[in-house]
Amino acid sequence: MPDTHPSCRFHVQAGAVRLAVTAWGDPAWPVIVLVHGYPDNSHVWHGVAQVLADRFHVIAYDVRGAGGSDAPPCVADYRLERLADDFIAVINAVAPGRRVHLVGHDWGSIQGWEFVTDPRLYGRIASFTSCSGPCLDHAASALRTPGRRTWAQWRATLGQALASWYIVFFHIPKLPEWHWRLWLGRGWPRWLRHTEGLLVPPNPTQTADGIHGLRLYRANFRARLRAPRQRHAHAPVQVIVPTRDRYVRPALTENLGRWVANLWRRQVDAHHWLPLARPRHMATMVGEFVDHLEGAPATVELDQARVPIGGPSSTAAIS
Q1: What is the domain-level CATH number for residue 261?
Q2: What is the largest CA-CA distance in the chain?
Q3: What string of DSSP letters covers 28-73?
Q4: Are 248 and 132 in contact (CB under 8 A)?
Q5: CA–CA distance, 253 with 289 (Å, rounded to integer)
Q6: Residue 101 forms beta bridges with which residues?
Q7: Residue 263 in 3-state DSSP?
Q8: How many distinct structural domains can be found in the chain?
Q9: Dihedral (CA of 102, 108, 113, 115) sign
Q10: Which pLDDT score, from 0 to 100, does residue 152 have?
Q11: Percent of the chain as helix, strand, coil, to the nearest 5
Q12: Which of 108, 149, 274, 301 is deepest in the core (most CB within 10 A)?
């Protein structure tokens, strides 16, 4: 997608970590913050940002360990609480005292669930759009829910466990790093072409992004599985569900009514990297949601995606 909107690049200091930030659009407009996943950096959002910048002030930053941001060496520095500190530093720098609309993909969505359930951010997040990334606490709590499970529930749990094989691999010392250095860093565009049908240019920081981002998994997964927290969203949430996602199965984002009071859920016939594959469609869904929460009437598609309070969270609009 051609760059029709100029961008501004700068850095924000979050404690000892310097974060690389890119901004598009008029700062007076409603603010949308885009948080990328693994093993990406903020460039994954540039196509989406170009569409949204027509009427929003759009911010995308490289998460610690990725792109142009600092990469702390300790695994503990990548805990969700530290990632929330980074987000707070960014929004305080770009939108002091204002509410922002948050959008996350993959690990950016996992982080987003942390932000939208963090009491420190109550009143600062106007909405959260989650794509292909669950709340780790919600997922761990679901595994601990008492009572008998149906065969369909067991099948969904097994399917997600098989799809998440790479998480176990990422916890093996040194072996994943070796793969990134040996072939996966330079071969990542071929992997996306083979698995997602995407043609993407090489990322000069891909190997480093892949290696440093392993600390996200090692800092958080075991801790949350052992001791999940009660995490209730304090802002409206839109969940975008790619139905052909090979990493995050649709069932993982069902039954969220326990945790989210104001919920919309859309299913999309797409693979995992929706922001890269269909940036205009992704931007349209985000824009419709933000516009509605800023006071515009809901579109037909958004209205169909609304999950009734107390209703089954599997209600969805197929896009």
Answers
A1: 3.40.50.1820
A2: 55
A3: TSPEEEEE--TT--GGGGHHHHHHHTTTSEEEEEPPTTSTTS---S
A4: yes
A5: 18
A6: 32, 127
A7: strand
A8: 1
A9: negative
A10: 58
A11: 45, 15, 40
A12: 108
Residue 317's pLDDT is 44
Asked if residue 216 is part of any domain, the answer here is no
Q: Are 308 and 257 in contact (CB under 8 A)?
A: no
Tokens of 307: 């999950």
Tell me if 137 is assigned to some domain. yes
First-residue to last-residue Cα distance in the chain: 21
CB atoms within 10 A of CB 40: 27
Structure tokens at 19: 């974060």
**Mean pLDDT throughout 166-179?**
95
What contacts 168, CB < 8 A, 6 or more positions away? none
**Structural domain harbouring 20:** 7-164+228-318
Between CA 34 and CA 49 the distance in angstroms is: 8
Torsion angle in degrees (nearest 10) through CA of 69, 208, 49, 51: 170
Q: Please list, in sequence order, all residues whose beta carbon lies within 8 angstroms of the beta carbon of residue 279, skipping any fewer than 6 positions away.
A: 1, 47, 48, 50, 51
Express each pLDDT in 229-250 by its tens digit: 999 999 999 999 999 999 999 9
Q: Which one, of 167, 21, 1, lies nearest residue 90 by Cα?
A: 21
In this prediction the pTM is 0.93
- Please check whether residue 244 lies inside any domain of the structure: yes
**Two structure tokens written together for 233:** 């969203």
Whether 147 shows a pLDDT value over 80: the answer reads no
Assigned domain for 213 exists? no
